[in-house]
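Q: I'm writing up a methods section and want to include an example of the input and output format. Could you take the sequence below and give the corresponding predicted C-alpha cells, formatted cleanly so I can copy it straight into the document?
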Amino acid sequence: MEERRRQYAVRRAAVAVAAAVVAAVSVSCAAAAHDADPSAKIDVGDESGLVLPAAGSIWTSDLALGRVVRIDPATNAVVARIRVGTRPFGLAFGAGSVWVADRSLPTLARIDPRSTRVVKRIAIGLNSYGVTYAVGSVWVTSELDGTVRRINPRTNRVVAKIHAGTTPDGLAYAFGALWVADLDGGRVLRIDPKRNRVTARIAVERADWITPSADGLWVSSETGVVARVDPVARRVVATVHVGANPLASAWVDGELWVPNLDAGTVSVVDPATNSVRVTLPAGRGPLAVAAVGDAAWLSNSGDGDIWRFPAARP
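A: Here is the clean output for your methods example:
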C-alpha cells in the first residue's frame, strides 16, 4: 500500500487539471438537482482508509496513525480510537468481532466491539489488503506471497493458505464462492470455500476491488473503469467509465457509489443503464464508501475525514 500510495501521489499530479475540470462539472450537475455537500465531516486522524458498518457504529482505519476509529452514527462523534498496528487497512465484521489487517505488519487484529480492545493478534502474511467474513471464516489477502489466508475464529488460527494469483487485493463472498481481485494478474479469481481452491479466472485488467450485487460482481479497476461481471457466465458484460483509480465502492439507494481516489470524485452508477448518472466532488483522496441507514459514509484519505452524505439521490 505504501508503494501504491507513492504511485497515487505521482499520478495525482498528472491528473490534477483533469480532476479540477471534472469536479467543476460535477458541482454544476449536482447543484442542479440536489445539494451534494455532505451533511457532516468527521475528523478521524491523518489518513482515513476503509469504512465498515458494524455493531451499531461506523469504523474506519487510520493508516498514518496506526489506529481504528469508531464513530457513533447517531451523533457523528468519534467514540473510540484503538491502537492496532502500523498501517491498518482491511476491515471486516463477523463472529462478534471487528477484524483489522495491517499493511506493514504480518498480523490480523481482533477487536471486541463491546470493550473496544484488541483481544487477539493472529500471524498472517505481509502486505495484507482485503478482509472479509464468510462461511464461518475470516479471509485475508496478502500481496507479498500472492495468497488468501482462511482463519478459523473459534481457534484464531490460519486453517488454509490458498495461492491466488500475483497480487490479490479486494475480495468478497457472493454466489456461493469467494471472489478475489488479482491486481497485477489482471483477473478476478473464484475460490470454492469447500475445497479452498481457485476454480475459475475471469480477465479484468488491473482488478482492485469487488462489490457484489444481486446479479453480478462490480469490479473496480485501476484503469478508471468498473467492470460488471456475470458470475454464472464468468465474463465481463459491461464496462462503466468512472474516474481515476476507483476503489472501495458500495450500494447506496440502489446505485453504486464509486470513490475515485486520484480524481477526488465519487461516480454514482445507475445499474439499469451501466452508466454514471452523476459525479460528485469528494475532496482529496476518496477511498471507500459504506451505506448505513439513511446515509452514505465516505472516507477522504487525503484529509483524514469521514464524510456523511444523505442517502437521498443527488
